[in-house]
Amino acid sequence: MTIRAYFRRPAPAAAIALAVLVAAPTNMLAQGLDDPASADRIVGSEIQEEQSSVATDAEKVLNAIDKTPDNIAAVRMTSALDTVDIVFLPDAAMAEGGPPAPIRDRIEKRQADVDALRAEIEGNAMIYHAINARQILPRDVLAVEFPGEREIVIYAAAKPPAD
């Protein structure tokens, strides 16, 4: 068989594979990681969301920022979570002018730690997918806290995604 003849007739296996690929539903080809249900499966638990205000949770956020050096290591070592709670703080979002002065000042004071925390969040698939599915960028994370073993609360200067 010459090279020219070989390319005129597609191999039967290749033709079958192409037919199967074309006929397959698109949802079988890839799992959308932006879907909250997909993130829930990756994290291994349901992700709880709540909306609050900086005025209500300022003390909690400030305390969590102060614990950032300890939480960096905790994020790095986290491999399983039972509870993920995302607290949206829309009044601290950049579109609203950013966090109020006390929180902004505390973040600036601990900027290196906050940057390291955000880098660890990007490197942790569970936590990253939990926030990414809720349209939160790592730069929007103000702080995290671990109220118990296998529990995390993420404070985000962001608005909840529109459904």
What's the short story on this structure?
With 163 residues, the protein is an alpha/beta fold.
- Mean pLDDT score: 84
Count every helix, treating DSSP H or I runs of 4 or more residues as helices: 9
Overall radius of gyration: 22 Å
- As laid out across the biggest beta sheet, the strand order is 1-2-4-3
Q: Describe the sheet with the most strands.
A: 4 strands, mixed
| Total of domains | 1
Gross morphology is globular
Termini separation comes to 59 Å
Helix content: 40-55%
Beta percentage is 5-15%
Q: What's the order of the H and E elements?
A: HHHHEHHEHHHEE
Number of strands: 4
Relevant terms:
single chain; 163 residues; alpha/beta; four-stranded mixed beta sheet; globular
Commentary on this structure:
The termini are far apart. Mean pLDDT is 84; it is low at 27-33. This protein has 163 residues and is an alpha/beta fold. The chain is built from nine helices and four strands; from the N terminus they run H-H-H-H-E-H-H-E-H-H-H-E-E. The protein has one domain (36-156).
